[in-house]
Amino acid sequence: MQNERIDLNLLEYLDVLLRERNVTRAASYLGLSQPAMSNGLRRLRLMFNDPLLVRTSEGMTPTERALELQPLIREALAQVDKAIQPQAAFEPATTERVFRIMASDYAESTIIPRILHRLREEAPGIVLDIMTPSDVSFLDVEQGKVDMVINRFDSIPQSFHQKLIWNDSFTCLFSAENPIRDNFNLKTYLEAQHVWVSKTGMGVGVGIDPDDVQRLGWVDEALTKLGKKRHITIFTRHYQAAMLLAEQKDLIVTLPTRAAHLKQQNPRVILREPPFSIPAMELKMAWSPLLQNNPGHQWMRRLIVEVTQSQD
Length: 312
Fold this sequence. Notes:
5-stranded mixed sheet; about 300 residues; about 40% helix; elongated; alpha/beta; D-Maltodextrin-Binding Protein, domain 2; Arc Repressor Mutant, subunit A; 12 helices
């Protein structure tokens, strides 16, 4: 590195450049002109005596030196952010900010409407960008490109901060015209046709193996402990689609109770407790350590906790 006073703005430029790997996108993210961003990259190359980003057939590719610097710079910026954030005030009533939240449609349907109600009252300038689990990777969250993720997780990086949103039981949903309504028990449940629904974790999913009980989740694991197996006709990752399918005369959907309760006023379906015990599932909120001390982020996390607790 050249012997000169370090400009912290340049370190932020480098962090964004290495994340975006595109000068134009990095400039847009930081609110700079493209010439200003290009000038910043030139100064960074002089500072570290390294090209840092090189044009290849795959676009702007980080050098070995840049990849070594990336985690160090991110940690340094996080520490600086932690030091200065207490001095910065967050005013919900006047802020204009986009919060990017990854949520399964189960979480989106049960939580987001209440969050929006509070935001209209307290922070009308906030915009929500709701993303699906398939839109987001753990790396996106780690880098702070996504503010928070709300979902069920089989596993989550240890560096992430997380908060339990709630535990939810399960409910069976089926057509009011389904003959099973008059004789609903474990035997008739097992004889029926079923819709499997789940979207755990993040990233692009893979096909389901109907015989892989562990990957099928809570409902089927509970049945396996009883030595039983249900007949699954349809596999879906969308709770809204599953609840729509429940209106068909020969299908049963077993899903988290808070989602099922969205259909309580629908005369075409019936809600019943499962005829066997299913352990409760956990819904969690997780976020990057880079955002832990951001006042606006802290405010949003508190609002989400308040909203979810008020549903209990």
